[in-house]
Amino acid sequence: MMIFVNAFVVGGIICLIGQLLLDVGKLTPAHTLSTLVVAGAVLDGLDLYEPLIDFAGAGASVPITSFGNALVHGAVTEAQQSGLIGILTGIFQVTSAGVSAAIIFSFLAALIFRPKG
């Protein structure tokens, strides 16, 4: 039961930070998104994001900060195995499934619902 509470609290804190960046920091949504992705990347570079995922589960792996985490984690893992070329291949390998899923599900949603444009 605690994993649900941890996920709720950590996910809520990440969302709170994003909302504060929008409201108090007067950042645009694009700047807020970029800031949260970079924060996730920096936290992974400092080996702090994986323990956060272990603690909070989906509360840390679902928000946009986990995208930055995935980019850095994939690059570092592949760089250790394949050298410098692994930096690029690792980024594409780790994030390709998520980006592909987003494109496919967005297309399916556009087929089912009538988008207004």
Automatic annotation (TrEMBL):
Pfam families: SpoVAC_SpoVAEB
Domain of life: Bacteria
Membrane spanning stretches: 91-113
Keywords: Membrane, Transmembrane, Transmembrane helix
Keyword Transmembrane helix: yes
InterPro entries xrefs: Spore_V_AE, SpoVA
Name under which the protein is recorded: Stage V sporulation protein AE
